[in-house]
Structure formats: structure tokens, C-alpha cells
Amino acid sequence: MEQTAMTATQPAPTPTTVKARRRPKITSYGTVIGMIVVVLAVGAIKPSFLGLPNLQAVLVEATVLAVLAVGLSIVMSMKGIDLSIAVTADVAGYIAAKTLLEGNGLGAALFAALAVGLVVGLVNGVLAGFLGVPAIVATLGVNLLLSAVGLVISDNGTPQQLFTAPAAVVGDFLAIGTGSVGPVRILIIVAIVVVAIAWFATRRTVWGRGIDLVESSSRAAFLAGVPVRVTFAAGFVACSVLAALAGVMLTARTGVVVPGTAAPLLLDAFTAVYLGSIASPKGRIRVLWTVVGALFVALLANGLTLLGLGAPWRFALNGLLILAALALGALRTRTARR
């Protein structure tokens, strides 16, 4: 009786209240709709853009960016940043190729590449997570150090060309980038597996719940018993290992590696993460929405190429997209506080 009376006295939701509740979702869907409109507009100007062969090529191109951006999203979801991901991918890819050409086999090449990511991640994690060095400073320093390492091991930028080596030596490695399992490219399978593992780790594990608490408030996470430093450092390790894997994927796809190859992907990865955050219903950085952002960035780059617009347009649009994402994020936060 008492519960019924209390329920009966509660005011019915007004149209204004309903609109207020729906506004964040409408705003989020608006971002996705905007992406779709851009894609359809490019397709209307250049019909081949939406052709199946081109879309398949874009999907393969997006795999490396998606893996790189997913790793970055883990760090950024905890209000961190990693400026060393592109050079980590470069060095890992170069070492994998060099190890392979020295006749050590596919397993050794993959192990060497991922070991690079693990070491870089541990260094970043210790500096930013345990020593309290600002992440932007720590990862910038590691970026510069790795750039020097890349030049030393490559003898000032000498490329490693896998496609000219005997197939018996590099065939299995290059199959990662060019081979297929049935109709599905191996790169796509690798990206799907990485995304699935990253989603599970960040959404369905104790570590993932710790990430959510650190994202909301590191102080509150500490008081709740979350090992904040370990959680933050582990994010950098995951980010760097995925960056190394992205470097392997890029090297296997192109068949050649030289220091600086992955540099353009740094801006693309940030763009993908920010676009995914504003497309997310709650305005938060999430793995699956980062993948949506990566697909859009890859489609946009491909569309600009088909339209005959060069790198300046791509960099300008990526910069505008990042600024727009930051502005919309700030606006959403201000609206939520009201």
C-alpha cells in the first residue's frame, strides 16, 4: 500500500524531461550519421569509392590503424597519452624483418617484435605509472630514444626489403599481410581477434573495472582498493604490445620497412580514438567505438586519394576532426554538469 501510494505521487515524465533524457543519444547518433553522410557524399562524387573491391581494400588498410588505435584507447581511457606508438611500431617491424632475413624463422621474428613492445610498455608504465612522470613527457622521451635506436639498427635508414628475399625465408611472414583464410584476409582475422580480446579485457575483467574507476577518479579508485599505479602501467604495456603487433602487420602487408613508415599513423590513431569517444552514447573512450573511428578515418583517407586530394587535405581534416571532437566533448561535459 505504501509503495503504491508513493508510486502514485511521483510526477509523470513531461515531454521536456523525455527530450532531455534522449538528447545525449541523439547527439551521439548525430556523429555517426555525420560520418555516414560524409561517406555517402564521397561515394556520390566518386562511385568507385563505394564499390566492393575498394571497400575490401579499405577494410584491409584499416586493420593496422584499428590495432594501433585500440591500444591507444586503453591508455587514453585512463586520461593518459602515448606518443611513442608509431615509432614502437616502426622499430618492432624493422626488428621482425631483420630477424627474419637473418634466417631465424617466423616464430623468432614475431617474438622479437612483441618483445620490443613489451619493453617499451614497461618503460612507459614505470615512468608514468610508478615514478609519476607526466605521460606526455615520458612517452615523448621514449619516442625520441626509439627514433635514435631505429636509425642505429637500420644504419641511418637502410630499408629491409622482404619481397626480394627467397620465399622459403619470408613466405610465412608475408602471408600474414597478403594471405587469406577462405575469403577473409588474415589481417582482418588478426584485427578481429585483437579487438575481441581488448574489449573483453576492458569490459569484462577486474582490470577493466579498475580502468573505469581510474577514468572516473583516480582518487576514488585508490580509496576503493584499486591498484591505480599497476592498472595505469598495465595500460601502457598493452598499448605498446599492440603497437608492436601493428608494426608487424604493416611490415607483412607492405613487404618493406624503413624507420618512419608508421609515423603518419600516430595522428590517425588519435583521430580514431577521439571520433570514437564522441560517437559513443556516453561520450567515453571505448574499444568498439574506437574501431568505428578507425574505419571512418581509413575511409576518409581513401576517399581523399580517389578525389585527387593529397596529404595536406588529409592532415587538415584530421586536425579539424580532433578539434571538433575536443569541442564536442567539452560541450557534452558542460551540459552534463548543468
From TrEMBL:
<dbReference type="GO" id="GO:0022857">
    <property type="term" value="F:transmembrane transporter activity"/>
</dbReference>
<feature type="compositionally biased region" description="Low complexity">
    <location>
        <begin position="1"/>
        <end position="17"/>
    </location>
</feature>
<protein>
    <recommendedName>
        <fullName>ABC transporter permease</fullName>
    </recommendedName>
</protein>
<feature type="transmembrane region" description="Helical">
    <location>
        <begin position="313"/>
        <end position="331"/>
    </location>
</feature>
<feature type="transmembrane region" description="Helical">
    <location>
        <begin position="173"/>
        <end position="201"/>
    </location>
</feature>
<feature type="transmembrane region" description="Helical">
    <location>
        <begin position="26"/>
        <end position="45"/>
    </location>
</feature>
<feature type="transmembrane region" description="Helical">
    <location>
        <begin position="107"/>
        <end position="128"/>
    </location>
</feature>
<keyword id="KW-0812">Transmembrane</keyword>
<feature type="transmembrane region" description="Helical">
    <location>
        <begin position="135"/>
        <end position="153"/>
    </location>
</feature>
<keyword id="KW-1003">Cell membrane</keyword>
<feature type="transmembrane region" description="Helical">
    <location>
        <begin position="57"/>
        <end position="76"/>
    </location>
</feature>
<feature type="transmembrane region" description="Helical">
    <location>
        <begin position="222"/>
        <end position="250"/>
    </location>
</feature>
<dbReference type="Pfam" id="PF02653">
    <property type="entry name" value="BPD_transp_2"/>
</dbReference>
<keyword id="KW-0472">Membrane</keyword>
<dbReference type="GO" id="GO:0005886">
    <property type="term" value="C:plasma membrane"/>
</dbReference>
<feature type="transmembrane region" description="Helical">
    <location>
        <begin position="287"/>
        <end position="307"/>
    </location>
</feature>
<feature type="transmembrane region" description="Helical">
    <location>
        <begin position="256"/>
        <end position="275"/>
    </location>
</feature>
<feature type="region of interest" description="Disordered">
    <location>
        <begin position="1"/>
        <end position="21"/>
    </location>
</feature>
<dbReference type="InterPro" id="IPR001851">
    <property type="entry name" value="ABC_transp_permease"/>
</dbReference>
<keyword id="KW-1133">Transmembrane helix</keyword>
